[in-house]
Amino acid sequence: MRGLSTRQLAYIAFAAVCVFWGTTYLGIKVALETVPPFLLGGMRFTLAGSVLAVALRLLGHEWPDWRRAPTFFLIGLAMLGFGNGGVVWAEQFMASGLVAVLVASTPFWMVGIESLAGGERLTRRTVVGLSIGFSGILLLVWPDLLAAMSATSGWTWIGGLIATQLACVGWSVGSTVSKQRLHDTDPLVSAAGQMLAGGLVMLAVSGLLGEYGRLTWTARSAAAVAYLFVAGSLVGFVAYTYALRHLPMSIVSLYPYVNPVVAVVLGTWLLHEPLTWRIVVAIAVILGGSAVVSGRIQHSKFTMKRAANTEDLPGALRVQKEPVQTSE
Questions:
Q1: Helices (H), strands (E): how many in the chain?
Q2: In Å, how far from its chain's centre is CA 189?
Q3: Do the domain assignments include residue 218?
Q4: Number of structural domains, the chain?
Q5: 325 in any annotated domain
Q6: CA 281, CA 181: separation in Å to the nearest integer?
Q7: What are 116-131's pLDDT values in tens digits?
Q8: Residue 301 placed within a domain
Q9: What digits encode the pLDDT tens for the residues 33-62?
Q10: Backbone dihedral region of 7: left (phi > 0), alpha (psi from -120 to 50 degrees) or beta?
């Protein structure tokens, strides 16, 4: 897009992630009616990675040295094998809304692991903002959450909790490795390599679990898989990789908070679903928490810019401490 800066394009990519990934929970639920979980992820990501890789090759994009293949494998295993695989596995037994709430802990894992890895520093303001946003998520889905929890048995609840938190950790580790080790790689090439690596891992796991023999198709599940392939993988994952490259981790990590807001807004606008005061307040709380996090980034940038401008002032306008000369 001409006239747009890299950062503006990154925010557009982040918006695409918020919109498209907000719809994939329902798509996964429909696809799982006939497609086993790891086979579902393996098919969509391997196909999306292959299509994107061929297209980029034809367009003349440069590919990284094959010695970096272990990095792509690690990221694919963490983000898609554990990250996507854990979510899809949990959705076999739990309501998609309940899974979405459990996955909303992802921002805490992302900023925490990024900080431990020596990246963006974790501040009190970030933790407060994320906590406010998470409380808004709970308020938004509270009635559905209570119904889902009452319908979920003890062991299913424990298994789903473990699976989703492993997914959050895997996604966070993969995101941190991608941001730190592939910063000099074309984001589109990076996305293709990660999807290929992760998809192949999921296909291998699917084979070990004997999922191939359980695969059947219906019109509903085929449409859901096609939608996940396009919206979730080709568009969503590529957009996420681009946003991750050019935006702070604390900003990118907010997508699980924005996803439900987008879903509510689209439901009210397109399907004329009721908009209650509880939903309005919840959206305000979520956006408020997100603003607290993003406001920290803007404040930090302003402080850095002001410091840089101060350093550029003429020497006569600066207050400097000169060493005191003493006579001996």
A1: 15, 0
A2: 18
A3: yes
A4: 1
A5: no
A6: 40
A7: 888 888 788 888 888 8
A8: yes
A9: 999 999 999 999 999 999 999 999 899 888
A10: alpha
